[in-house]
């Protein structure tokens, strides 16, 4: 569905050339849920804009649905759906008309677009809000309406940029359910997200990007297995003590990470690791054992330094 080889994107900012995407290879298969992860400035959004056929490729090759975005942009855009990070709903229209008017841009007949709008309102559980104003919707409802709008043309590929940013946990899970149902219907989904649990729950495969390059690729389970351990023991000592304790426990785990507020000990058996810490007369203020997550992988690959 999507094939990129040596894909590059550069632009001029402040008088200098910025290389946002520095030669990446990506292949997304039909019916797959594919994710782009990475810190701010990693090149995710630049890649998504090229895939959406709204930003020209600077180098390498890119095929969307077997088509060249440089030559077949209109046809590609007619066959894909885009759910942007920011809601761009028309506040002057009610919920149903946001779908109907948008559908008309794709050349759908009045009869077809009205039927499609009703189907989508039911799909995203907004039928009862059909005549409501957009401003009267909650954040989660607006997000679901934006997703419904991106589906009006029955896209073969749906691009989702941070689909659940700003939503509370309940609203996020409703959106997750709708997206999972789309995958079951055969829609190919491509997503960027900052939520590691979201990527772990939804994605079949994903890539981790950093500084315009792909630094890892695979399923969430495979990436956790390759770049982390089965469990993580988290230990909290007194203020300023974590760095002093780290050398005393570094042989108890495959990897020890020092954070300002705690130590992370990566091992196959977290309980056994904590027991050995106590055997050495070390008494953490707090300790817990958890399984390794995609967030551990992400932070190991891209670092814990904040990126503006």
Structural notes for this entry:
- Belongs to the ABC transporter superfamily.
- It is a peripheral membrane protein.
- A six-stranded mixed beta sheet has the order 5-6-7-3-8-9, with helices on both faces.
- The two termini are 33 Å apart.
- The chain is built from eleven helices and 13 strands.
- It folds into two domains: 223 residues, P-loop containing nucleotide triphosphate hydrolases (Rossmann fold, 3-Layer(aba) Sandwich), CATH 3.40.50.300; 64 residues, Alpha-Beta Plaits.
- It is globular and about 75 Å long.
- The longest helix is centred in the middle third of the chain and has 16 residues.
Give a concise summary.
The protein has 308 residues and is of the alpha/beta class. 37% of the residues lie in helices and 27% in strands. It is built from eleven helices and 13 strands.
SSE layout and pairing:
Elements: E1 2-13, E2 16-28, E3 33-37, H1 44-51, E4 59-64, H2 69-79, E5 80-83, H3 95-104, H4 110-123, H5 139-150, E6 157-161, H6 169-184, E7 188-192, H7 196-202, E8 205-210, E9 213-218, H8 220-227, E10 231-236, H9 242-249, E11 255-258, E12 263-267, H10 270-279, E13 286-291, H11 294-302
Parallel strand pairs: 3-7, 3-8, 5-6, 6-7
Antiparallel strand pairs: 1-2, 1-4, 8-9, 10-12, 10-13, 11-12
Helix pairs in contact: 3-4, 5-6, 8-11
């Amino acid at each position: 569905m999507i094939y990129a080889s040596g894909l590059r994107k550069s632009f001029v900012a402040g008088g200098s050339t910025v290389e946002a995407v520095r030669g990446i290879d990506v292949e997304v298969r039909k019916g797959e849920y594919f994710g782009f992860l990475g810190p701010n400035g990693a090149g995710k959004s630049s890649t998504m804009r090229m895939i959406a056929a709204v930003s020209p490729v600077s180098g390498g090759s890119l095929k969307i649905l077997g088509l060249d975005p440089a030559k077949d942009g209109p046809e590609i855009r007619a066959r894909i759906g885009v759910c942007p990070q920011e809601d761009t709903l028309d506040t002057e229209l009610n919920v149903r008309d946001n779908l109907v008017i948008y559908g008309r841009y794709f050349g759908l007949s009045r009869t077809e677009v009205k039927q499609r709008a009703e189907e989508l309102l039911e799909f995203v559980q907004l039928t009862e809000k059909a005549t409501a104003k957009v401003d009267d919707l909650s954040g989660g409802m607006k997000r679901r309406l934006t997703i419904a709008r991106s589906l009006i043309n029955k896209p073969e590929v749906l691009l989702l940029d941070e689909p659940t940013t700003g939503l509370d946990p309940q609203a996020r899970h409703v959106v997750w359910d709708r997206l999972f149902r789309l995958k079951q219907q055969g829609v190919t989904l491509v997503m960027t997200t900052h939520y590691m649990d979201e990527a772990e729950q939804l994605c079949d495969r994903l890539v981790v990007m950093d500084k315009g390059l792909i630094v890892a690729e695979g399923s969430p389970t495979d990436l956790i297995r390759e770049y982390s351990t089965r469990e993580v023991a988290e230990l909290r000592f007194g203020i300023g003590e974590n760095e002093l304790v780290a050398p005393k426990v570094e042989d108890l785990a495959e990897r020890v990470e020092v954070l300002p507020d705690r130590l992370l000990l990566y091992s196959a058996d977290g309980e056994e690791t904590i027991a050995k810490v106590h055997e050495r007369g070390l008494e953490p203020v707090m300790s817990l054992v958890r399984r390794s997550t995609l967030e551990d992988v992400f932070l190991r690959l891209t670092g814990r330094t904040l990126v503006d």
